[in-house]
Amino acid sequence: MALAGCDTDSIVTLPAGRSLQALSAQILKDIEQKNMAKESPILVRLFKEESELEVWKQDQSGRYVLLKTYPICRWSGELGPKVKEGDRQAPEGFYSITPGLMNPNSNYYLAINTGFPNTYDRANGRTGDFLMIHGDCSSRGCYAMTDEQIGEIYALARESFFGGQRAFQIQAYPFRMTPLNMARHRNSPHMGFWRMLKQGYDHFEVTRLEPKVDVCDKRYVFDAETKAKFAAAGKCPAYQVQPDVVAAVKDRQQQEEREVAELIRGGTAAAPIRTNQDGGMHPTFLASFQKPYLDGAGLIRSARAPLPGTIPPHARPPGEPNPEYTVASVDTKSANNAARAGTRVAAAPATQSESSGGLFGNMFSLASTSSTPASPPSNSKEQSNSESVFSRMGRMVGLGGSEPAETTSSTGAPKAKVASKPDANGKTKSESKSDPKTTGTATAAAAAARPPQPKHPSDQAAVQPEKAVQPEKAVQPEKAAQPEKPAKDANLMNGAQAPVPTGSFDNRWGQFR
Predict the structure, then answer these.
(1) What is the distance, to the nearest Å, from the Cα of residue 437 to the centroid of all Cα atoms in its chain?
(2) How many helices (H) and strands (E) does the chain have?
(3) Which residues contact 321 (CB under 8 A, 6 or more apart)?
(4) Looking at 374-462, which runs of residues are DSSP E strands?
(5) Nearest by Cα to 51 from 323, 216, 279
(6) What integer best gives the mean pLDDT of the chain?
(7) How confident is the model at residue 7, as a pLDDT?
(8) Of 130-134, 276-280, 338-342, 389-393, highest mean pLDDT
(9) To the nearest whole percent, how much of the chain has pLDDT over 70?
(10) CA distance 363 to 360
(11) Directed axis angle between helix 243-265 and helix 191-207, to 10°?
(12) 388 DSSP β-pair partners
């Protein structure tokens, strides 16, 4: 369960004052100026791409008005819904927060559990737990704020419960559902899911009331009125939505669809489906990680801006994803199959220890990395640094071709390569490509000047096409040695996260499991 999310529900003894801190004088002033009561209901909206959290509060008219926008310090994963436990995705959808989901004893200062998986998530087979909005500015599937921010958000929710609100709604979106963003993300495989979320987004935009959310036929339904019961995976019963709401939403959507079409015709570029970064951080916080720079006048400038809270030393900005984690999940059949199988996406390894295939890969290795030079990548795939037992056995029985493409002599210089050359009778014979008169230092110098050769015999033609000759008996495709698949770590549960460096954020919570 600790691997499922941020695991902020561990029972620890923390000062009770965190959850009981009073609202600041400034936020109370804002509440009064906007004709709200301190105890009136709230609603929360989250936007990944903009890295912003909005708190809306009901005013004297009964409509929701935006009270405050908080920059999100950190969220993890990519744009798109959370699909499976361990994918590091922050959830997207509609979630109902009851007092029981408020955690005053969080390891990350304070926390609000989103309640993932909700009825929709469970109906669609999505897994995970402990997906939170919390402090500490570090995330593994959560929306992380600074401690000061979550303290104020927690207090606003607490006061609404004291005022009689039984549950408040969290609406989590990939981005603000504007025509420009819908045009930019038009190629995303999540677009069908996002259009469904936009229905609820539009209901709130035109009414400024919390939309009633139901699930049937494995999809969200908003502001539906019926005497029947909704079954999340069953067929939707007959229902109706207030005609004025239907008309207002339809007008809004038709206008925005025209704007989207115009933006696309005008050349609006499609956003990349993947950013190759693990999550996001608001520019306000990103600026704190930028180094000072010299402007045109030679003056030292800093991009840092006043922060709405304290960033802990272990916080880090989004960067290249950890190769041991699946960064993004996709709402497609193939991606869901991969998710159920616990597939992990890994970047190209930089060292032999990272690409050796783990324990079993080392057991079947015949050559040491210290004695074998590294191979260049071929077709964007890393070549093995040593010949496997299976490849050697294949050669012994005539299935692996010739000897390895390159070996080293006792002096450390590469030995001469041997190629087959037909004689006058059409038969082949072995001919040395080295000159017997050039040995020792000359041979070593020539080997050093020549670029490294790939380790697989089949790559010789690609490196030296003018010298390569086809072998007398070509290896049949069905007999060709298959590349070894990376060994799966049997010590990990399906979908579990891999170990992380000591002292990192993810190791810090391990002591509370």
Answers:
(1) 59
(2) 15, 16
(3) 276, 277, 278, 327, 345, 347
(4) 418-422, 428-432
(5) 279
(6) 74
(7) 56
(8) 130-134
(9) 59
(10) 5
(11) 130
(12) 365
- Which contacts (CB < 8 Å, 24+ apart) does range 211-216 have? 211/94, 211/169, 213/94, 213/96, 213/169, 215/118, 215/119, 215/120, 215/123
pLDDT of residue 149: 97
Query: Among candidates 198, 196, 169, which has minimal Cα distance to 181?
Result: 198
Tokens of 321: 């994803």
CB 172 within 8 A of CB 103: no
Q: Sorting pLDDT into bands at 50, 70 and 90, what band is 255?
A: very high
Helix H or strand E segment including 220: strand 219-222
Residue 393, helix vs strand vs coil: helix
**Strand pairing report for 300-301 and 293-294:** antiparallel
d(CA 316, CA 279): 11
Quote the pTM value: 0.63
Asked if 472 and 429 count as a contact pair (C-beta separation under 8 A), the reply is: no
- pLDDT, average across residues 129-157: 95
Rounded CA separation 237/231 (Å): 9
The residue type at 420:
S
SS (H, E, C) 89-117: CCCCEEEEECHHHEECCCCCCCEEECCCC
Bridge pairing between strands 52-58 and 111-113: unpaired
Provide the 3-class DSSP secondary structure of residue 373: coil
Cβ contacts of 20 within 8 Å, gap of 6 or more = 158
State pLDDT tens for residues 171-192: 999 999 999 999 999 999 999 9
* Model confidence pLDDT, tens digit, residues 27-57: 999 999 999 999 999 999 999 999 999 999 9
More confident residue, 117 or 139: 117
- Cα separation, 366 vs 354, in Å, equals 17
Q: Catalytic positions, please? A: 134, 142
Distance of CA 295 to the CA centre of its chain: 35
| Cβ proximity of 197 and 188 under 8 Å | no
**Cα radius of gyration (the chain):** 30
* Alpha-carbon distances of 64 from 36, 44, 242, 460, 500, rounded to whole Å: 10, 11, 19, 70, 43
The rounded distance, in Å, linking the Cα atoms of 195 and 437 is: 75
